[in-house]
Amino acid sequence: MGPRIGPMGEGSQMPEQDTKAMMGTEDAPGGKSTPGPQDVRTRVFHNLKFFVLCHSLLQLAQLMISGYLKSSISTVEKRFGLSSQTSGLLASFNEVGNTALIVFVSYFGSRVHRPRLIGCGAVLVALAGLVMALPHFISEPYRFEHTSPFYYHPAGNMLPDFESSLCLPTALALTPALGPSNGSCSDSTETKHLTVVGIMFTAQTLLGVGGVPIQPFGISYIDDFAHNSNSPLYLGVLFAVTMIGPGMAYGLGGLMLSLYVDIDRMPEGGISLTSRDPRWVGAWWLGFLVASGAVALAAIPYFFFPREMPKEKHELHFQRRILAMTASSASKAEDTPSQQSPRESPQKQDGFAQMEPDLTVIQFIKVFPKVLLRTLRHPIFLLVVLSQVCTSSMVAGMATFLPKFLERQFSVTASYANLLIGCLTIPLSILGILVGGVLAKRLNLSSKHCTLLCLLGALLCLLLSLPLFFMGCPTHQIAGITPQTGPQPGLELFPGCMESCPCSSDDFNPVCDLNNHVEYLTPCYAGCRSRVAQEPVDKSQVVYTNCSCVAEDVPVAGGSCDSACSHLVLPFMLLVSLSAALASITHTPSFMLILREVKKEDKTLAVGIQFMLLRVLAWMPSPVIHGSAIDTTCLHWAQSCGRRAVCRYYDHDLLRNRFIGLQFFFKIGCLACFALILVILRQTDKEEGTKVTMSKPGLQKQSLISGPEQKPDESKV
Questions:
Q1: Bridge pairing between strands 542-545 and 518-520
Q2: Tens of pLDDT along 281-299?
Q3: Is residue 275 domain-shared with residue 405, that is, in the same domain?
Q4: pTM strictly above 0.85
Q5: DSSP state of 158
Q6: Which one, 284, 424, 463, 626, has least CB within 10 Å?
């Protein structure tokens, strides 16, 4: 077993090169030094501030690559024909590898070269990003004209793409090609589909495994070698920079999804799609390459940092000024432990943390369940964790499927939806976390007041969610799918208009009758026999004419009908962002409740158990639960080789009520947990007050009556 990495004087000998790196210019002859390249490199990589900078950038890039999939989840569904349940499972699968290994990080943390292991984990994360983009390169180019196998003219010539969706006379009816058959479809296409899905699940697993050592080892490395007064500032900078990562992920998604998926292999003459077309698929894979490159660059410095860094001896000057200006009785009480000498503070650390390096793996596995059960029996800890599980479930579902919800509910592009989330929701959530921390620090909140702050934030978050149920409109009419509500007869009521139109049920090329606001799956379903490109106005706008199923033979426009509620997307996002900010206020106070209420000897492992439970109970199942709820609102599924693929149309009312309702359910659970915590704390305060009241008569009696015969009464009191 290697030595315990900790403060100086605790079994860790400072290497000679570390001592040299800390020497100033006054150590050289004549007070001057001429450092060579080796000395400069040694001095840079033995600087803890440089490590904090590198680790901030690495965690930012890691969160950017893990959050990018959530920003492009609807595009991945559309490209590879996945249901929302499958895509939700894919989004949560990186937690599987992470959760399986995170428990052992606390055991092996002091036995390894932490910076080097962080670098290896970062390389694995970058590799996972490259593997995630691999399905684009092994798949055939995306064909947006139709989803069924190629159809051929009876003469043997493949028809142009735009003609495959038109209503052709029976004599020229499209017949399936002789080449592809049902057997070949199920054998080849399904094999490719399973291969692509398997690659993405493997990449997500690698992403979770690679991220295991990054945050725990980085935080412990900074805390071990930073000055006791500088460590909170370094960690605060680390967390502040890290929180920018999810916002950058959605911004990157907004930029990349505005580009066409096959931008690297565009057909001659370009494409006739716009980003507003429901068949549009953005360059989802390009963001993974960019984020992987950022992670790989951020991983390079970690292979040059030493295993043990000399502990800082001085407090930062500007931090000393800030502390002197804002000094108070509360801050003095909190800073007392940090003023202890390095040799005294480890002796007052948690008992389990002191015992940990001396345990074997078998002993660690045996001890862990006992401490876990003892910690879970603590009612405050259990309720705080349950409240954080509800909040994390809400955040995980919203982060994964909010872009898709905005696309479907308000008919906005995937790029615009990601930009809204990255520019509104993420910054306000960060602001909420900061406000919660500032309030808890400046007001010196007790456990009961922390609970009251959390309760108020959860209540306001719940109230702001109520208007979201009414901000939307029902699904516009889709011929043959939604029930007829207007005077215009439905497609099923006059089949005569399609008697000469052998339309394929697998094709998807929606057109919209702008006069009646009715949408058809393809021009063929509208009985259209010709196509006109409106090049003078817009080269990408296509109009179909001679449509027998449209009243008065009015031309229909290519693309889905616009939503009548598009103007509500900004108010909707503003309410969502404000509720997210209010929910984020509870972040820091809830952590303070755990640190104050849990026994000191269990505090270290309690935080680790907390994060493990959040992953197992919230971040892993929540995307799957939200995806399954979304799938139940589907009106029309695309079919691929006889299996259910991506959903083409949703019931907007059901989608809104079930998605927002699921969020509302988790918010109620969070509010109930904080309410129970407040009841328990008040009951505890009442019991302590009763004990104090009962002890006062006993003290008076003891002062008036003395003698050996009073000892039994004193013991009873």
A1: unpaired
A2: 999 999 999 999 999 999 9
A3: no
A4: no
A5: B
A6: 463
- Domain-embedded: residue 224: yes
Check residue 172 and give its pLDDT.
46
Reading the block at residue 578, the tokens are 């404000």
Residue 412 to residues 202, 275, 572, 576: CA-CA distances in angstroms?
31, 9, 13, 17
Closest CA to 563 of 487, 658, 656: 656
DSSP state of 502: -
Q: Which of 296, 315, 334 is the last residue of a domain?
A: 315
Same domain? For 401 and 488 the reply is no
The confidence score (pLDDT) of residue 603 equals 66
Integer Cα distance of 710 and 701 in angstroms = 9
Over its C-alpha atoms, the chain yields an Rg (Å, rounded) of 32
Closest CA to 280 of 413, 134, 404: 413
Residue 139 main-chain phi, psi, to 5 deg: -95, 160
Task: Please tell me what DSSP assigns to residue 563.
Answer: P
pLDDT digits (tens, 9 = 90+) for 148-194: 333 333 333 334 445 557 777 654 444 443 334 444 465 666 778 88
In a domain, 690, yes or no: no
**Domain span holding position 544:** 477-558
Structure token digits, residue 507: 């094709």
Question: Kind of pairing, strands 477-478 and 151-152?
Answer: unpaired
* Domains of the chain: total: 3
> What does each C-alpha distance from 527 to 514, 524, 586, 637 come to in angstroms?
16, 5, 57, 22
45-78 b/e (C-beta count within 10 Å ≥ 16 → b): bbbbeebbbbbbbbbbbbbbbbbbbbbbbbbbbb
Together in a domain, 528 and 418: no
3-state helix, strand, coil in the chain (%, to 5): 65, 5, 30
Q: Which two tokens stand for residue 461?
A: 């978050």
Three-state helix/strand/coil letters over 505-550: CCCCCCEEECCCCEEECCCCCCCCCEEEECCCCCCCCEEEECCCCC
